[in-house]
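USER:
I would value a second opinion on how I read folds in token form. Give me a protein, with the fold worked out from its sequence. Write it directly below this note and I will take it from there.

ASSISTANT:
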Amino acid sequence: MRKTVIAGNWKMNMTPAATTEFITTLAPMVAGKDKCDIVLCVPFVDISAAVKAAEGTNIHIGAQNVHFEAKGAFTGEISAEMLTAIGCEYVIIGHSERRTYFGETDTTVNLRTKAALAAGLKVILCVGEVKEERLSGITNEVVTMQTKLDLAGISAQELQNVIIAYEPVWAIGTGLTATPEQADETCGVIRSALAGLYGEEVAENTVIQYGGSMNDKNAAELLSKVNVDGGLIGGASLKTDAFTAIVDAANA
């Protein structure tokens, strides 16, 4: 039985002090709402503050990226061991902004995923098509190929610690949202790709989120779809009221 996961992606927002204030306010608002797992993926500098503020609550803390090497001459990068050492549980890998602005490829996404899993982190792995691919009718081929490449060499057992986030690139930060039917259909395509790689049982047990501008207004309808197991939330995760409303929708 898949459990819904509502994860916030703060992107490049919040200082450590603001992080503490936010989680201190949010925690009682989502307390006891355990039909879904609640995750906040925060900037590197905020992780320690987030872990401390979330202690004793039902909020889990994640990072937004991780390097694939354990250590070395990689200025500006953070290793999986560094993340686990400060209490990080989750990490986003392959977000479209990393792919678009920072040269992330399916090869490096795969390497990062392997490194994160080896260190005991849970991975939120992002896949999704750009607008031109959607308009050209090749969405299914794109997300299937990304899923296969990003998970190459990852076992069914390791996949238990992977969440797939379907993120239509054209819907991220644009205010546009895939219709619930589009989200359900494409999450289903990803599930079919997983079935081809690992079998039907593994595919049915894998959490697949929707991550394209889910907010407090559209969450309930999106989450009602059979293949949508949660959300990777951007802007709405920076507002306690909006994020709580999404958690409420997942607990309805």
Remarks:
- The domain at 4-251 is CATH 3.20.20.70 (TIM Barrel).
